[in-house]
Amino acid sequence: MNEWSNREELLALVRAQMHDKRYEHTLGVAKSAKELAIRYGADPEKAELAGYLHDYCKCWPVDKMFEILVRHDMPTDLLEGEKELWHAFAGAIVIQTDLGITDPDILQAVRYHTTGRAGMTLLEKVVCVADYIEPNRNFPGVEHIRQQAEKDLDAALALALGGTMHFLIEKQKTVFPLTLLAYNDLISRKGRVGGFNG
Prior knowledge:
By secondary structure, this protein is mainly α. It has helices at 7-15, 20-40, 44-53, 62-71, 76-79, 86-97, 104-111, 122-133, 142-149, 153-170, 177-193. The model has no long low-confidence stretch (mean pLDDT 92).
């Protein structure tokens, strides 16, 4: 793994940031991301590393994340939006400043693993979908997303993002603009390439 050749040292650092359940999830995401990368032609080492790092700040206090985001001039809509999104953006900053991870592909995959964005890279899609389908996940519709992920990554991601938006709307919570843009981008591409395989 180019920037972190010592896997045990990296995992020890990751483990120290989170509780047991979150760490098990993290291992599951790394495994699923590597498998998806191999299936779809992304870099499996980068996918695995991004999987290990994607929730690096997830269990941090929100005020600590907020301070990091403000210090790095994150946009107002993020700072005023759902705090559940902060860990991804803060994590991309922290793994660069504290761990020395400089690969832009990995940093972007961590930054957008929760919200998505229009024009996602293959690696970003892989990590985002892996976050939804890793083996410890258990929510309505996850099996359908897993099935789609075996044959069409974009279809799986569109299903996952659509499900997230539906959940947020039912709870009368805001949908972060990047998520809507990511979904619309996937759907518009679907029309251009002849549709997803259902």
